[in-house]
Design a protein that fits this description.
The chain is an alpha/beta fold. The chain has 21 helices and 20 strands. The longest helix has 23 residues. Keywords: Membrane, Signal, Transmembrane, Transmembrane helix.
Amino acid sequence: MKTTVFDLIWKLKRELEKHGHNKIDLHRFTHEQDYRQAILLNVDISELHFSKALEEIYKDLLQNERLDLAKEVEVPDQPSEKILTSPEVKPASNTTAYLAFALIVLLVSGFGYMLFDDSADDPTIADVKPMVIKKSSERPSLSGNTSALVTEKSIEELSPAKSVEDQTITEKIVAQIPEVLKPEPQKPLFRLYGSNTIGEVLAPELIKAFYKSEGASQISIEKTDVEVENNIKLKLAGDDAESMIPIHAHGSSTGFKALDQNQTDLAMASRRIKDKELKQLGPKYGNLRSKSTEHIIGMDGLAVIVNPSNPIDNLSTEQLAKLFSGNAVNWKEFGGQDAPVKVFARDTNSGTWDSFKSMVLKKHGVKLVENAVRIESSVELSDQVSKTPGAIGFIGLPYVLRSKALAISDDRNGNPIYPTTFTISTEDYPLVRRLYIYEPSTIDTDSQAHKFITFVLSEAGQQVVKEAGFISQNIYKTKPMMTASLPQNYLAAIANADRLSLNFRFHSGTFQLDNKAERDLQRVVDFFEKNPGQQAMLIGFSDSIGDPAANASLSLQRAKAVERALLARGINIQTTLGMGEAAPIASNQTRIGRERNRRVEIWVNSNTTSGYNAAIR
């Protein structure tokens, strides 16, 4: 199995913190040798039981001033472990528990006397070694009586310790006590693994809101020792027992890996499932790109952030590619200050990273500069950029925080667009992305996981998405700023209209609405039911590849496809137009750009006749 040097350093940092070291500044740990050595030289590696890979990176960090953070290294495959699950075993009886407790007490006290009484000078006795009690592979729970639980405190109170040496041997034996008497781990209501963008803030807020609507009480977030792993604790209505939902947010790819290993029920992703993941998981979970399994839970703009002191306000994706690849190393190359560029990027497991790599780096045929600082936490990355002069990074829109977001154009001649609620909800902003939760087809529709998904997609759930700082899919209307360079027939058609906050898009190369558009149809119906006196207009667009007349025809066909879908739901349309390749919002030189240009806008204007069930034209 391959991993990067940076990932190993990150794991080493977490292990050190887990074993009692104070919070470690990852940026200084990777880039400042004095800071790093002050930490590592005070670590007894023999006590930490590191893996071979972590031992090697520990030695490299001590010896080398700089490392190639992006370098991939081979590490031995680890046996897969099931997370938050345990074998199904019968509970131990109280009698068994008491017998085990008594046996351990006798062992501890017996060895205390045998090793450290007055006869310890006898060499035949001095050679006696403490018995090693092997751990059982099963961990049965106690039924009812918890007084039989063996703790280190109870051993110390009952053991006839006679000296410091006696206490030491007691601690050694206690450390080897089998875990058979500990309670079985609590079975979660469901498990959420994957995207840090979703899991760090959005998922906890959605879970809390869902269970509040279900009448649950005492809802709280329990932090764990691992930075992006938390548990939601709560009590269901009518149930005094505490329930939990674990959230592990190590990146989109880890969600699909967890699905493959049966370690999660739902996978969070800030990019669409890849073909290889779809193929691998299909036999077990069905088609994860179907409408019933692929859920768009909200929208997010991939904001490009710089230090607040940076005077530059906008960049093209081509300029971004130069900066993040190291082909531009000073801000003065783009009219900024004479200052070196310092690149920050999300970790390799992140869907944010996958999205940026696809939309910027791969598009322009470059790779991320090797000395980029890779960070797992969205909040930490934004914080580092805001503190570091000359810094640039990319992040989900809610995590801009104290940094400065730039306007981005899709190509050199395009109009720079800022990431705003409207430009992201319509997907006009160049670096927009959809946020997903994947629900295997094997999940029961009566399960907590499925009910949670239903809530997330509802109007109430989408309001939580908005309150969490992401972009809701609930529809509203606005009057966007229009430039005089747009086609005059287009400007005339929309002169007295407002635009709804969505675009209809299609599966690649077809006139079939994609999964988001299919769900948006019902949202449009809901809008007209709540806003009588509105008349709708559909305007279709195409890419610029091919004959302009043919493109105009294609754009009209797309608009007509939406019109038919709305007619089937009782919504009549006043006007349907095809504008062809006019008003592109993305580059026509890339596949993704062409797909974004193939869209249908929906506009409304007030009229004395209701737009809901009004006559067509």
